[in-house]
Design brief:
The complex is a heterodimer of chains A (about 110) and B (about 110). Chain A has about 110 residues and is mostly beta strands. Chain A is built from no helices and eleven strands. In chain B, a hairpin with a 2-residue loop joins strand 5 and strand 6. The chains are: A mainly beta (about 110), B mainly beta (about 110).
């Protein structure tokens, strides 16, 4: 079993829809949770960062962490074609290493 | 531009050969991380250097080695290359030794072994 599970998709939604992405994990030591966005042929860029459980909102993006269920989510409201990318969840127990999910490929259709 | 520079962007080489990938971290960052990204394995941590010293090792093959120089740039050396080494190799950097607040990634080097 992988430490971080993420459905690779692909996910295709019409413009303006809400995109819902999620990851589950098995390591209860994880406390720091991130979402990265990766465009084709580019490196991942940090999108959202959350510590411990709770919600965090940044513009059209909302990240949720439920440590009791070992489940994290990312919601993208009013999705745009420019949001088409691969989204990777990442998490850390507080050391050097980030453990990544496999990434979910999202396409927003105009 | 993330501030992390990787060269070359693309590399095509034959099996059995040796290549060197280069990374310059974001200005001020002392930690450099190397990751391998393949379609079936996702992003896999290889190795971390902090201020010139090796700090952590992940699933790095013995045929692979890395170092960080006094000017903080880093090189990843891949030798006796096999077809399965074909992947995207990313360098990332962070300010401190602990990367739990996230790294900044470069654009990667796409290695194709033929």
């Amino acid at each position: 079993q992988k430490e971080v599970e993420q459905d690779p998709g692909p996910l295709s939604v019409p413009e303006g829809a809400i995109v819902s992405l999620n990851c589950t994990y098995s390591n209860s030591a994880f406390q720091y949770f991130m979402w990265y966005r990766q465009y084709s042929r580019k490196g991942p860029e940090l999108l959202m960062y959350t510590y411990s459980s709770g919600n965090k909102e940044d513009g059209r993006f909302t990240a949720q962490v439920d440590k009791s269920s070992k489940y994290i989510s990312l919601f993208i409201r009013d999705s745009q074609p420019s949001d088409s990318a691969t989204y990777l969840c990442a998490m850390s127990a507080g050391d050097y290493k980030l453990s990544f999910g496999a990434g979910t490929t999202v396409t927003v259709r105009a | 531009d993330s501030g992390v520079t990787q060269t070359p962007k693309h590399l095509i080489t034959a099996t059995g050969q040796r290549v060197t990938l280069r990374c310059s971290p974001r200005s001020g960052d002392l930690s450099v991380y190397w990751y391998q990204q393949s379609l079936d394995q996702g992003l896999q941590f290889l190795i971390q250097y902090y201020n010139g010293e090796e700090r952590a090792k992940g699933n790095i093959l013995e045929r692979f080695s890395a170092q960080q120089f006094p000017d903080l740039h880093s090189e990843l050396n891949l030798s006796s290359l096999e077809l399965g080494d074909s992947a995207l190799y990313f360098c990332a950097s962070s300010l401190g030794v602990q990367g739990y607040y996230g790294y900044t990634f470069g654009s990667g080097t796409r290695l194709t072994v033929v």
